[in-house]
UniProtKB/TrEMBL annotation:
It comes from Hornefia porci. SUPFAM superfamilies: S-adenosyl-L-methionine-dependent methyltransferases. Residues 281-294, 305-314 have a biased composition (Basic and acidic residues). Coiled coil: none annotated. This is Methyltransferase small domain-containing protein. CDD domains: AdoMet_MTases. Residues 275-314 are annotated as: Disordered. The lineage of its organism: Bacteria, Bacillati, Bacillota, Clostridia, Peptostreptococcales.
Length: 314
């Protein structure tokens, strides 16, 4: 049996996301989404709701499509796209559209972010012509872009356990600059970019964003619990936006007693504080509380479903 045939026969798992009726197919052997993707979707949704309704959004490095799937529940955006370089993971995203009957709103493209370079002043192909996947509709055609790019710079860190994790974690198929160039090409003037990354890359983020006319406007640091060092940063940029950076109050995922924080409950549309997070989530068939920053806070068709994933890379 070939490697491809083995992958096709590998069992997939259907999980409830905890967002309305949205479900997701995941491969426990290679790819499960993490809390960073949930935070990114919530961060973007909260800011897009308060503005004139955006009509088009693109998620770069979409993985199995979790961010657009959550946004399909949290927003009324009618045309959402996801771009994914890994064919096997992209196929999962396409299946997730069908699973949730969202063919009229969600579309996924198998492509590398390096192929999305359309603004001639900023970047051209070797032949001197702009490069752009025709499916996405042309340069400057999106109101918003979200991205959860690989966190580890090329040549840094230890290699991951398999190719899927390596591509998701390390900048081997696209650097941070590649992702940001793609976002700049996709966005309309005054369009909105939402990023999740590691605080250790914050200087790189700010420097690259400003160079590519993506002006940082808001930053939120996220920690596991109060008083712990932040391990996630959320950033909101505007293409050709006004200068002026706001550092918003830090948020945390859990309280000292292990219950979900008010911010996380609000993100999951549950306003009442819960001391025993595990019991509360099980009532909604959403799994136990986080065990690490990469676990899924509320996912699973059965209690503890996310624990079966060997690694959560998004």
């Amino acid at each position: 049996m070939t490697e491809t045939e083995m992958k096709e026969k590998r069992p997939l798992r259907i999980d409830d996301t905890g967002f309305g009726s949205v479900r997701i197919l995941q491969d426990p052997e290679t790819f499960c989404y993490g809390v960073d993707a949930v935070l990114l979707a919530g961060f973007a949704a909260a800011r897009l709701k308060g503005r004139s309704r955006p009509s088009r959004l693109c998620d770069l490095g979409t993985g199995n499509g979790i961010v657009p799937l959550i946004l399909s529940h949290k927003t009324h955006i009618g045309d959402m796209w996801g771009v994914e370089v890994q064919e096997e993971v992209w196929r999962l995203a396409v299946k997730n559209v069908e699973l949730n009957d969202l063919e009229d709103r969600l579309h996924f493209l198998h492509a590398n972010v390096r192929d999305i370079r359309t603004r001639p002043v900023e970047c051209q192909s070797p032949a001197g012509q702009p490069v752009f996947p025709a499916e996405l509709g042309g340069p400057g055609s999106f109101d918003a872009v979200t991205m959860n790019p690989p966190y580890t710079a090329a040549g840094s860190g230890l290699p991951a356990g398999n190719e899927a994790r390596t591509i998701a974690r390390h900048e081997v198929a696209g650097s941070l600059e590649d992702f940001l160039r793609a976002a700049s090409a996709l966005l309309k003037d005054k369009g909105h970019l939402f990023i999740v990354h590691r605080p250790s890359r914050l200087i790189d983020l700010c420097e690259l964003c400003r160079r590519l006319r993506l002006e940082p406007g808001e930053i939120v640091f996220v920690s596991g619990k109060p008083m712990e060092k932040p391990n996630i940063v959320l950033m909101h940029c505007v293409r050709n936006g006004n200068r002026g950076l706001r550092i918003l109050p830090e948020m945390h995922v859990r309280e000292p007693d292990g219950s979900f924080s008010h911010e996380m409950l609000k993100l999951y549309e549950r306003e009442t504080p819960v001391r025993d997070a595990a019991s509360a989530m099980r009532k909604d068939r959403e799994g136990p509380p986080l065990r690490s920053e990469n676990d899924i806070p509320a996912a699973g068709g059965k209690p503890g479903a996310e624990a079966e994933c060997k690694d959560s890379v998004k």
